[in-house]
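Reopening this one. Same input as before:
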Amino acid sequence: MNGFVTKSSKALLALSAAAVLGLTGTATAEARTTGETARSGATGTAADAVKAELAKRGAAAGRVVCYRVHVADLGWLSAVCDGSVAGTTGQSRRMEAIEVAVGNVGGVCLNAHLANIGWQGTRCGGDYQNVVAGTTGQSRRMEALYISVASGSVAARAHVEGIGWQHAVRGNPVTVGTTGQSRRMEAIQIDV
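Same output, byte for byte:
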């Protein structure tokens, strides 16, 4: 799908990630290429990542989305942007919450479907604002995620327990994951 990294470009991504991570000191390039984002420090929100990405792009800055997830036994992982993998695969760890921020999109809305709760309720924020859906400290799995943006379209796909990577969906809004199947989301990719 457009906007997501193909297998042939993973090596280039790994080199780019290594260069960026070497500057920030927050993770290893190996973690990025195996489907797990590194643990976040005290800072490093999705909004911080959006601002850094736009500053890096300069005058040619376009639409950007950055996001980070809270994973069982790991806590908040580092923010990633524009179709990169957030979460874990092959470790049987549930996503519990997600934080998303956008730039040059006008805003984003999220609604998480959670174990034993159902749909949590829509939460929205404008450009450069963190929007959080899900729970922390409750050991509750996120099963599905609804995402909408103020302008244009959004694309997403989820890695789901017992299914693996779902097909990517693009539109406005989109929903990824499952409901009524008691399956945990383990990782996600989002692009605008």
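So the earlier flakiness isn't reproducible anymore. For the record, Residues 111 and 122 are 5 Å apart (CA to CA).
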